[in-house]
Amino acid sequence: MDVRVDRDRCLGAGMCALTAPGVFDQDQDQGLVVLLDPHPPEDRHAAVRLAAGVCPASAVTVAEHGRPTTA
Amino acid sequence: MQHEPTHAAPVTLPTGRAAGCPFDPPAGLAQLREERPLARMTYPDGHVGWLATGHAAVRFVLGDPRFSSRYELMHYPFPGGPEGPLPPAPVGDMTGMDAPEHTRLRRLLMGRFTVRRMRQLTDWVREITAEHLDALERRGPGTDLVEAYARPIPALVICELLGVPYADRGRFQDHAHTLMSMEAAPEDRHAAMNGLLEYMAELVAAKRAAPCDDLLGDLARESDLTDEELVGLGGFLLAAGLDTTANMIAHGTFALLSNPAQAEALRDDPELAPQAVEELMRYLTVAHTSVRTALEDVEVGGQVVRAGESVTVSLEAANRDPERFPDPDVLDLHRRATGHLGFGHGIHQCLGQQLARVELAVALPALLTRFPALRLDTPADEVPLRTGMNIYGVHRLPVTWDED
Fold first, then answer.
1. pLDDT of A8-29, one tens digit each?
2. Where are the beta strands (DSSP E) in A1-71?
3. Please, what CATH class does the domain formed by B29-400 belong to?
4. CB-nearest partner of B111 from A18, A28, A50
5. Is the ipTM of this complex over 0.85?
6. Which of residues 19 through 48 in chain A touch B, CB cutoff 8 A?
């Protein structure tokens, strides 16, 4: 799994950091998404997919088996 | 998802809630969602636009920048609203702006409301909550929970964060309340807005003169906001923080007392609180309705919304969509409600949502734990409901318990 984040789209809602902590965080000055782990272990995949799905700004992208999927 | 036959007659927005169902969306929304999750809707001003009730349609409209939030483009969906087009959003009212104006303000603020920063407030929120539980106990059985608990806790929190003296609340609480009413006459809304801005202008002048270490103080010192923007934004943030969480605490308590097994589950397992908050946000959806207007022709689920047409999005109907949440009309604190639209979706998704989560996850279980025998002090069907308000909930919630 390859995870990407787009800090230009990010609106700091914090849904990713809430849903998949350890993979995502927010920087403490601006609240923008910080990607802690672009290749999360398999036991985090479900949480990461959920985080991508609930990002209100579609700023989280997950690619699996070379096939990109967006929220 | 079924598609609407083109000849189906436009509907009007259902607003009346069925008697005895204080937690359910207005009757009529469920059937509409099943038959026509995106339906043509006739607005009170005669405009023929749309009503989105399905989770997928609502989420799509809120997440797509081709739909504008600007007030001056929208048609008002509730009866008794303003005649003719609405004025543009007042300066600082972020809900009525699009990018890039909205982005500029949001980016100034969002670092202040991160998950981590809000969680750091947990102990402080616990202290405030404990003080109000003590006060509730002193007042004794029969007390109105809204006035004694649900309103003051979020009000104290937002005032402290913004740097608004809580002691001044007599100067802004009623104004904020009027602004939340869908039924308030335009002149009353205008007066309330002026009153709120007048108060905020004095406060901002004081912050400019002697900046202090709170959100408005920091913005006064560090941002490029004009006085007018800072005043408008301060009024907006204050109003947004006062009524929303307060109604979730009161209505959430009402829902838990009406579902004793769920209340017991939350009381018995403090770890359940974060999940319980998500489910209550889904189930109650006190911020129930929003409107967007298409800036160009947009295809939504096989139908085309034309440029200039308004779409009323029913967040409360979307959060009861069985295609997204099985058994949606059941309050089940153990369900995974993540993905609900109780805080909205898209660029306008609630800025203060992580604060609300902390407040609710503290205030609801603490109340149930301190008063294990808490119950309504009035028949459930006599609890006055906030129909006709932008934020749904209860006006009063008289509660009682057994004294030791």
1. 999 999 999 999 999 999 998 9
2. 2-5, 24-26, 33-35, 60-64, 67-70
3. mainly alpha
4. A28
5. yes
6. 19, 25-32
